[in-house]
Amino acid sequence: MSGHGRRFLLAMWEGGGTIPPELGIARRLIERGHQVHVLADPTLAEPAQAAGCSFSPWRRAPHRTSLDPAEDLFKDWELSNPLAMLRNARDGFMAGPAADFADDTRQVIADVRPDVLLVDAMVLGAIVAGQASAVPVAVLMPNIWMVPTPGVPAVGPGFAPAKTALGRTRDAAMRAVANRLFDGGLPALNAARAGYGLAPLTSFWQQLLDVERILVLSSAAFDIASSAVPPNVSYVGPIIDDPSWVEPWTAPWPDDSDQPLVLVGFTSNFQDHGLQLRRVVEALSTLPVRAVVTLGQMLGDHEVTGTDNVAVVRSAPHRQILGRASLVVTHCGHGTTLKTLAAGVPMLCMPMGRDQNDTAARVVHHGAGIRLRPTASVPRIRAAITAVLADDCFAANATRLAAAIADEHQSIDLVSDLEAMAGPLPAGTG
C-alpha cells in the first residue's frame, strides 16, 4: 500500500548509535507523506526536528538534558562485572522506571493520536502505554537480536556460535542466567501494567515479545540469530544514515596516494575510551597507512592527538570515507559495524561492553575481521592491523556480506510494512 497521511509516534532515547537508524526510519516515513512525532530525551529535540519530526521530551521518565557524561543513564564504564551491567540497565532503565515511561507515553498518545507506536526495544514502559491505548506497536531493535533464544549464544559475553555439545551446554546455562537476572525486573514491569489494567507477565521478555511487530534493524545474513527468532520478528536490514551532527571532511593527503586508508571510529556515547584511542593512534603512527580518527561528541579535542599520517577530527562522514577505506578500527557498535560491512570493508574490533562483544563475535564468525580486548597493547594493535591489511580473505568476506546486505535492502520495503500496520486511510482521505 502507498497510503499517505498516517501518524506515527516514535518513542526513543539518547542511545548514541541507536539514534541515526531510528531517525532514519522517521525520515523515510516523512518522505512518503506521513507524520512522525518523536518522544525522547531533550537532547534529541534538534536532531528529531532536523529529520522533519515534531517533538516532545520525556518528563517523568529518566532522560538526559545534556551530553555531559555525568548525565549518562548507565555509566557502565564504572562497572566491570557484566551481570552488574545488565542489572543496572534492568533496574535503572528497562524495568525500574517502566511506569514513568508509560505515563509519559500515554500522555503523548492522547495528544498525538498515532496510528502506530514505534518503540526502541529498551523502552519497555512505552510498550505498556501502547498496549493500554490499543495502538499497534512496532518495536525497533537497532542492533542484533538481544532476547535470550534457544540455539543462540546469550548476549553479553561475546561467545561464538556453539559447535560442540559442551558449547551448547554453555549457551543453555548462560540463557538461564540471563533470563533469571532479567526476571528480577518483573515486579516493576507488572506494577506498571497493573496501573493500566493489563494482565501480569510471567517472564520479563514477554513485554517486548507480545507486540504486533518487532523490526530488527540489522542484516539477517550477519546475525546468527536470524533463523531462530519468533514469527512476529522481521529483519529489515540496517539503516546506515550518518548522524545529523556529522560535518564535511576533506582528506589532508593527495587522492593518488597508494597507502591504505584506515578509518577509526569508536562509540558516539562516552565509555571512557580516550586511552584506547590513543593506543590505536600510536599503533597507526608507525605503519605505512593513512588514517582518520573521528572522536564524536563525547571526547574533548585534547584527549587524542594526531600524527603526520593520522588525522584526528571531531566528526567526518563515515559513508564517504568507507568508499576508499581498506580497514576500520572500531569498538564494534552495531551501527558502525553494519555501515562498514555494507561497504565491504574488513574490521579490527575492540569491543568495550554492551552488545559490542556479541557484534564483534559475529564479525569474526563471518571471517570479516579480528577481535582484540579493549586493553590490547600498542604492539598487539599494530600486529592486528597489519594482519587484516595483509590477508585478502578478510576483505573478501566483508565484500560477501556487503552483497548480502545489498540484496536484503532490495527485497524489503520497511515503510510499506509500517503503512500496513497503520491500516487503510479513512474514506475521503489520501
What report would you give on this structure?
The structure is a single chain. The protein has a 7-stranded parallel sheet, with helices on both faces. It is α/β, with parallel strands linked by helices and 430 residues long. It has 2 domains: 7-237 and 412-422, Rossmann fold; 261-408, Glycogen Phosphorylase B (Rossmann fold, 3-Layer(aba) Sandwich), CATH 3.40.50.2000. The chain contains 15 helices and 13 strands. The termini are close together.
Structural features:
430 residues, alpha/beta, Rossmann fold, 2 domains, 7-stranded parallel beta sheet, 6-stranded parallel beta sheet, 13 strands
What can be said about this structure in brief?
With 430 residues, this protein is α/β, with parallel strands linked by helices. The chain folds into 2 domains: 7-237 and 412-422, 3-Layer(aba) Sandwich (Rossmann fold); 261-408, Glycogen Phosphorylase B (Rossmann fold). It has helices at residues 19-31, 45-50, 82-94, 98-112, 124-132, 165-183, 186-194, 206-209, 274-285, 318-322, 334-342, 356-365, 378-390, 392-411, 414-422, and strands at residues 7-11, 35-40, 54-57, 116-120, 137-141, 213-216, 233-235, 261-265, 290-294, 310-313, 327-330, 347-349, 369-371.
Report the C-alpha radius of gyration, rounded.
Answer: 21 Å
Low-pLDDT stretches are none
**Order of H and E elements:** EHEHEHHEHEHHHEEEHEEHEHEHEHHH
CATH top level of the largest domain is: Alpha Beta
How many helices? The count is: 15
Number of strands: 13
Residue fraction in strands: 5-15%
The figure for the number of domains is 2
